[in-house]
Amino acid sequence: HERVWREDHLRVRALSGDESAWQELFDSSYDRLWKAVISRSSLLAEDVIQETWLVAVRRLDSFDPRKGSFESWINGIAWRVLSQ
Global pTM? Predict the structure, then answer.
């Protein structure tokens, strides 16, 4: 699966400090994440998105593309942030 290979490669690069890999992950998921979060809480959307990315940076090593896409993983983080 190309998605799994690509996302795993980006994960490894991002964990090693490669900012361009982080940018690719961010760019690939930001628009849909923003739309999903703003539909749930327009007043808190910016704070939720910011906290979501902070959690993602701290926990990227737990992301496993074989279990699901990066987009699903980041959305799961956002829903947990929203529920706090």
Answer: 0.90
